[in-house]
Design goal:
Layout (H helix, E strand, L loop, with lengths): L7 H17 L1 H19 L4 E5 L4 H7 L9 E4 L3 H4 L19 H9 L6 E5 L6 H12 L4 E5 L1 H4 L12 H4 L2 E4 L7 E4 L5 E4 L1 H22 L15 H10 L11
Parallel strand pairs: 1-2, 1-3, 3-4, 4-5
Antiparallel strand pairs: 6-7
């Protein structure tokens, strides 16, 4: 990659090329179709999509859970739940290595109190941090289906961070590959290193492709997809509350 590629237009060009590969790939479309099947099955079983990620993967959790045009039966799992719902002191979140400590995912799972019909969507570019793998293992042990969004390139080039030696992609029922390079950054810098992360951009594409395919499956079966309207249009907030009421405290919408 040339020095000229390290520019706004360079990132636009290179990232569009990756997006074109994703959207034009039959293998990716097959994975998206399988992911949509998991989501549709969850909704039909009166389940909730439990979305979890740490660090910048939380951007995709927010893309999936509780946004306009998105699916209503979605719940955001977060490390902050330890404080919001678990009673921990806020200082617990100051630990930059919290996601690598054993036992955290188990607590988050219990705080969410998921139903057996719930689907777990777990997002991690590397797919190796302890809390990510621990959450996937806990969900699998409890009989949940798992959809993973990860970088297969990255996860295949780094060691496992969990004592089991397993990675997120090893545990999931369906994997959506975000096509991000190892380390996530796309544009190589002169003398080493790279700049401009890619996984959020490609991850958003995969999330919305899966949501659209889910809606298509439901519509094709004569069912109405349960989707949010923007709270900033007349009647949107009130209408959304009515849709959420069916799920009660199974979906949580704390201030972001």
């Amino acid at each position: 990659m040339s020095v000229e590629s390290v520019s706004a237009q360079g990132f636009a060009r290179e990232s569009r090329a990756v997006l074109d590969r994703i959207t034009g790939s039959e293998a990716v479309q097959e994975s998206v179709t399988r992911a949509a099947g998991l989501i549709a099955d969850c909704i039909r079983a009166d389940g909730v999509i439990q979305a979890f990620g740490t660090g910048h993967s939380q951007a995709l959790v927010l893309e999936l859970a509780g946004r306009a045009g998105g699916l209503v039966p979605t719940n955001r799992l977060s490390m902050a739940d330890l404080v919001l719902y678990g009673g921990d002191d806020p200082s617990a979140l100051d630990d930059p290595l919290l996601e690598r400590k054993p036992g955290i995912a188990g607590r988050l799972y219990e705080l969410a109190a998921p139903h057996p019909s719930d689907l777990f969507v777990i997002i991690s570019n590397s797919g190796v941090n302890n809390v990510i793998v621990e959450m996937a293992l806990r969900a699998k042990e409890r009989g949940h289906r798992i959809l993973a969004i990860t970088s297969l390139t990255h996860t295949r080039t780094v060691p496992a961070g969990h004592a089991s030696g397993r990675k997120l992609a090893d545990i999931a029922d369906v994997v959506l590959d975000n096509a991000a390079p190892t380390g996530d950054a796309l544009l190589e810098l002169p003398g080493g290193g790279a700049v401009c992360a890619l996984s959020t951009l490609t991850g958003v594409m995969l999330v919305q492709m899966a949501v659209a395919e889910t809606a298509a499956l439901l519509i094709g079966a004569g069912e109405r997809p349960p989707v949010y309207v923007s709270a900033n249009v007349p009647g949107g907030f009130e209408g959304n509350l009515g849709l959420e009421r069916h799920y009660g405290d199974r979906i949580r919408r704390p201030a972001s």
